[in-house]
Amino acid sequence: MLEASKINSLKKWRSVLILICSLACTLTSSAQFKPHYVNMTEVGGLFGRVVYNIPWSVPVQQRVENRLSLTLQTFNGVQLKPRMAVGLTTGLDWYQSALLMPVAAGIRYDLAKSKNNVTLLGMLDAGYGFQWLHADATGYKTDGGMMISPGLGLKFGLKSGSALVLSLSYKRQHAKSTEPLGWGEIEKWENRVYNRMAVRFGFVF
After folding, report:
1. How far is the C-alpha of 25 from the C-alpha of 173, rounded, in Å?
2. Which residue has the higher pLDDT, 180 or 193?
3. Is 25 in the same domain as 102?
């Protein structure tokens, strides 16, 4: 009976030691991680469809067309945790009738990582699209608006420590266009909502 109790006691102490070692390893790895600067710069296309009224058509008729626009984007932030980075996202979006510069708060989170150093990345940006670089035609005035863009990406790790990234995201951008007045018109404006799928390729370092 005494031997059995000693064996049980040793097993309990062994379990406690294993738990302590595991916690120590976790705390050590967390202590070793230091927040650092991270950059993700991408270029790609904004894909979408637009519906608009055909001018002077009676009765009013609408036309549907595909749209493809160039987009540039850069995320500059801090890697706060091994899997999470937060920062500022800026860029340029060339829509057909507006050049907007989004400025947004952004987060990048590693959802999963394979043995081949390929990481599934979650992304979210929310902010405002400014018209600072847009040039209006005579009589027109373009204003930016709120934007939000959630997405997913794949990071392909390189030996240098940097990575290639391929991302797919949804982008919703609000804007407003004030247009020249016609005969008898008091005001004339158009609220626009750009709903686009963004496909981008870039680098992370």
Report:
1. 45
2. 193
3. no
